Amino acid sequence: MSNVVKEPRTVVRKFLARPQHEGVGATVRRSIGRFELKYFDPFLVLDEFSVSAPAGFPDHPHRGFETVTYMLQGAVTHEDFEGHKGTIEAGDLQWMTAGRGIVHSEMPAAQGTQKGLQLWINLSSKYKMIEPRYQEITSKDITEAAKDGIKVRIIAGEALGIKSPIYTRTPTMYLDFTLNPGAQIQQPIPVSWNAFVYILEGEGIFGNSRSLPITAHNLLLLGGSGDGLEAWNKSSKSLRFILIGGEPLGEPVVQFGPFVMNSQAEIDQTIEDYENCTNGFEKARHWKSESTTVFGY
Ligand code: FJE
Ligand code: FE
């Protein structure tokens, strides 16, 4: 393989994401966003979620960041206060820029267990109050590239010379890699970006070919300098992991649940806006999701 990475990043920290309760009866394995890793600029939360009806995430608001939902199994129906509604099925992606405000529900759409990843990406102060926006791509339209026992689904950014059509307000890369036994990768990452790996299936070796294999539900923070990731599948099973990177914002972060702003005054204003249905929350006044009614919350 050509040497596309000159200075591979090393793994500096490892977190095992254990199941915890979230929403109403749902389970998340939270890696970023938990107490020991409150923020990894620009990333606020990474949840590997697992939800079966009637559990879910009924009507709740967001302001000041983006949520990226990538389904792994089953389906989730979302519905917002502007009437934007749809079902995110296995392999589909929803990239939601909440901006000044979204109120929505995210509920199971099928029998059995729905699984996926939800990433919260912070927005810079100049974009926190922009109009909400969705970018949605169904599984069949997510670009895939394959080479030498590597398959990569390009959610955001670029891999193996192929670019995703997703526009990232905060510059972000999001790649879903599957490596056959014996395969290895070299993936460039911009030097100034924060980046991490989250293992979904199998076991892989990351950063240094002599390091110990890491298994599912672990998050690996990649060292601050270096121009890319090197990883190996030295096992006899397939390895699947996510590589995410983003340009740090370097701004103060004040978070109150689903509101993420730069100062306490902005958070106080947001709580007021949400309570009074103003400054982007107007449509919340008379709205209740259909699924909330169906599920009887
Ligand atoms: C939220 C608690 C929550 N992780 N993963 C508090 F659970 C949520 C929330 C989610 C969520 C939704 C999906 Cl579909 C997947 C998630 C947390 O909705 F927004 C707040 N504030
Ligand atoms: Fe939400």
Automatic annotation (TrEMBL):
<dbReference type="Pfam" id="PF02678">
    <property type="entry name" value="Pirin"/>
</dbReference>
<feature type="domain" description="Pirin N-terminal">
    <location>
        <begin position="27"/>
        <end position="121"/>
    </location>
</feature>
<protein>
    <submittedName>
        <fullName>Pirin-like protein</fullName>
    </submittedName>
</protein>
<feature type="binding site">
    <location>
        <position position="104"/>
    </location>
    <ligand>
        <name>Fe cation</name>
    </ligand>
</feature>
<keyword id="KW-0408">Iron</keyword>
<dbReference type="InterPro" id="IPR011051">
    <property type="entry name" value="RmlC_Cupin_sf"/>
</dbReference>
<comment type="similarity">
    <text>Belongs to the pirin family.</text>
</comment>
<dbReference type="InterPro" id="IPR012093">
    <property type="entry name" value="Pirin"/>
</dbReference>
<feature type="binding site">
    <location>
        <position position="106"/>
    </location>
    <ligand>
        <name>Fe cation</name>
    </ligand>
</feature>
<feature type="domain" description="Pirin C-terminal">
    <location>
        <begin position="174"/>
        <end position="280"/>
    </location>
</feature>
<dbReference type="InterPro" id="IPR003829">
    <property type="entry name" value="Pirin_N_dom"/>
</dbReference>
<dbReference type="InterPro" id="IPR014710">
    <property type="entry name" value="RmlC-like_jellyroll"/>
</dbReference>
<feature type="binding site">
    <location>
        <position position="60"/>
    </location>
    <ligand>
        <name>Fe cation</name>
    </ligand>
</feature>
<keyword id="KW-0539">Nucleus</keyword>
<dbReference type="Pfam" id="PF05726">
    <property type="entry name" value="Pirin_C"/>
</dbReference>
<dbReference type="GO" id="GO:0005634">
    <property type="term" value="C:nucleus"/>
</dbReference>
<keyword id="KW-0479">Metal-binding</keyword>
<feature type="binding site">
    <location>
        <position position="62"/>
    </location>
    <ligand>
        <name>Fe cation</name>
    </ligand>
</feature>
<dbReference type="InterPro" id="IPR008778">
    <property type="entry name" value="Pirin_C_dom"/>
</dbReference>
